[in-house]
Amino acid sequence: MGDMTNSDFYTKNQRNDSNHDGGFGCSLMDLRSLMELRGTEAVVKIQEDYGGVEGLCQRLKTSPTEGLDGDATDLDKRKEVFGQNLIPPKKPKTFLQLVWEALQDVTLIILEIAALISLGLSFYQPPGESNEACGTLSAGAEDEGEAEAGWIEGAAILLSVVCVVLVTAFNDWSKEKQFRGLQSRIEQEQKFQVVRGGQVIQLPVSDIVTGDIAQVKYGDLLPADGVLIQGNDLKIDESSLTGESDHVRKSADKDPMLLSGTHVMEGSGRMLVTAVGVNSQTGIIFTLLGAGGEEEEKKEKKDCSHLSSHPIATIATDGAASANAPGNTSLVNGKMQDGNMENNQTKVKKQDGAAAMEMQPLKSAEGGETDDKEKKKANVSKKEKSVLQGKLTKLAVQIGKAGLVMSAITVIILVLYFAIDNFVLQKKPWLPECTPIYIQYFVKFFIIGVTVLVVAVPEGLPLAVTISLAYSVKKMMKDNNLVRHLDACETMGNATAICSDKTGTLTTNRMTAVQCYVGDVHYKEIPDPSSIPPKTLDILVNAISLNSAYTTKILPPDKEGGLPKQVGNKTECGLLGLVLDLKRDYQTIRNQIPEEKLYKVYTFNSVRKSMSTIIKLPDSSFRMYSKGASEIVLKKCTRILNEAGEPRVFRPRDRDEMVKKVIEPMACEGLRTICVAYRDFPADPEPNWEDENNILTELTAICVVGIEDPVRPEVPDAILKCQRAGITVRMVTGDNINTARAIAIKCGIIHPGEDFLCIDGKEFNRRIRNEKGEVEQERIDKVWPKLRVLARSSPTDKHTLVKGIIDSTLVDQRQVVAVTGDGTNDGPALKKADVGFAMGIAGTDVAKEASDIILTDDNFSSIVKAVMWGRNVYDSISKFLQFQLTVNVVAVIVAFTGACITQDSPLKAVQMLWVNLIMDTFASLALATEPPTEALLMRKPYGRNKPLISSTMTKNILGHGVYQLIIIFTLLFVGEQIFDIDSGRNAPLHSPPSEHYTIIFNTFVMMQLFNEINARKIHGERNVFDGIFRNPIFCSIVLATFVIQIVIVQFGGKPFSCSPLDLEKWMWCVFLGMGELVWGQVISTIPNSKLRFLRGAGQLSQKDEMPEEEMNEDQEEIDHAERELRRGQILWFRGLNRIQTQIEVVNTFKSGTSFQGALRRQSSTTSQNQDVTNVSSPSHVSLCNALSSPTSTAAPSGQC
Q: Which pTM does this prediction carry?
């Protein structure tokens, strides 16, 4: 079903290949059916139908060694016949769809209904002139002009609703555009090594075509399907396609099929690309998943129950992270990340499931046990709500409830007052002909009530969060932080610990050999080649040149006088540099023995910690070259080359002496020590190469090289900033303990004389495991607080440490941990951490997939920038809250008391909407875009339990609220005497706007404007203008608001219930507004200690952080109730639902419910999903993708 509907070009391709195969020896369908085979079937099929891989290459007109010639017409033709390597994205939402979504807002719907009733009634003229009898309140001057003007209020409300909708839709639209831009940035980053015209080049993944020869190596994410031509010890993790956690061995003669979206876990090789884009295995699955479109959605509801066992779903996260195309959403984001919300809820949840399955393999790879309990846990979503979202959600609910109560009371009081006054005190009968007039009154009361609700609910919150995050993300690009998941940015501000890699992050990752021990002599600098025995020199040069990835090279510098360019593995580059220093050329040796002639390669992996290559010598005996961490390789050496170049016996005690005399001194200078060795094997009998333990022993050591990786110059300063900001930096490295300690001292992670721990992986495991070898949390708690350096650590150790710190209950605040990683094996730790940083340059695709932020320059100091931006986001939201809540409190109280005392709100519905617009939308723009300052790094992290609204902020909110209320009530009750004007109180229905109420409205807005300047500081600073010109957006918004306000007051007339004011009255309004600035100074003089009663609102207490599972059950109850209410038309309760919806919006940043819960809810709450889908904006989903990936062992949040 899905296949055919994918896209036009898909069907076009199908037609193409059925008619002709474009002059190639095989058609698209042949290749597709070939790629569906596995293992020996595939080998047989290739052999029989195509005459082996070579035959297949000939049919595809390519050469297994030279690749394609890269001719443009040929490439275009291949794209035409076999398709392009991208999956066509879904269309983004149109502006009209977004407008429609914005219109679904409950409050707006209530307002629209009220406005329409008001409009309808204003055109209805009651029969007969019996007005006198219908209640005293209407006895005003009802002349013709006024009666006609009755429609204006309804129309104005509708107009303001249109404004709000357009602004919201525009915001969503620009947000989506930004995310799509971000997405294409991430995509362009992904390149792949391809052989074209005999040269290895890096191509963007989307440019790969069928027939290309691609070089695959450790850590790659395969971008297309292909057949292996030649491989060394290649192991692939195919769990993203098959769900099988064991790594699959690939070899040209046993199982040559490589599939897109799978991860290379070990080894290297070359493959012939046979299927790209929608025709690759992953593409086909996506076609089934996403492009079925409408039919799919019908099925979706049914499928949901089977999803968890459905291998297809497994693809959703990174199973597909391949074909990236600049302008196109490609496999990376898959269909899911495409910002399409069509079935957002289901899809995001689908990803959760997918990701859950995704993580299983990593666990078992680490040797963890995958029992059912674990599997259950794996389904819990990746992280708890981010700190900020948790706090905002709570606050929004609190405010919403209060607003709801206030607005209900307002309406009840107004109706009762009117009824009692008319029918009880004046004993009037209810006359049928008066009914319309009474209804008009009731509608007016209702509108006032809704107005109170509108003002009470802070719609601006989700908006402010989004704007602030989107703005930060855009700016963080400039600081070399490519943010993949929006909320990571804010979480970073709360980070309390950073576990950093050493190589490449703290150091420059430019390895240079500076010392060596060869021929029984320890050279403190690289020796002259003449001083080394020629025999030794030959073996050494061969050992280094052949036993390293042929993709590793040293190229001439880009610019004159620069350092030579190191390409590939940096440690190997250091060794190749040694060969060049010894005045020899490694390339000539490689040319004599090209990569195909290497007999067998044991690639480097984290278990072996060494790499070996076997070659066949001319006399058909074998020689194996080995290199690796010195303490590991030396253990396997039984001989060593002496000063004459002859092997002599090398006993354990010689080894101990060497460690003391050579290796430790090197390590203490921060050098990484690599031992190079070799071993000869007889031709007959040929050894069993699979029996690694017997092959990798009895080596002969050639030399030990000390390689230096200098510390990046800016790192010590960055680490100092982190420590000042209350963040502990820990170094986790695979290097030996002495090297690690030396580097840590240079970086300033440890200071001599302090009480800290530097231990290696072995000791770490000994301390944290009990007799049975199980990790115990209380044992970890004894280790981590003092731990600063963890050396010789395995990826599992890293994961254990991160998990241990996160789950620890030692400190009252839960630790927020950031982790950096570059290798494939760092995946689990990156996923487990609160924020995972992957290296943009050195990082493998797998690490990038698991991360939240990619450091495009691999530099530690960029992490500090991320902390700064994260804290800035938090502060921006707080500024906005401080401003918004002041307005809310004042507006609600004014509307409420005004309505109760004078039967009419001093601030009319339309005015309220305008105030709401400046408060919400404009203020969130102005305050959320403040640039960060260094001062942010001078304080400790806020932590999870610190209230969102600090006591200083509460003081400011209440203080300014009091000032504004005093001014407004003074104006309301004695304003007519002060300004000598007619009183606007108790005006009849439809009376013209009074100057009195216009002054109140104008003063109110002026006070908000000046208070917006006060809100720029939340820590009680005195100078609120500090750095105001660094934020042009802020200045322009304040000015624009001021100008529009003048226009509204002078020319707004009846729709805005304003009458023009003269200059003197204007001056008074501005003067009263400026009083805010003076009053702000008065407030900041009052010490907080005097105000004990100001406990913070929006605090996250322990019981709020309950496990996701329980939350879902609560959610479910709410949903059933919600549907009951929906049946009765109880509109008031919808206000509450609206808050929930807003919470959901905030949550769409990060789908916070667990997978199973989602499936449970899916059935019961299709209705609510409609709501959520409409309100939340598509863009959130695009970044949700990996956020929703659960971790292998994510603890339910309750334990944190």
A: 0.67
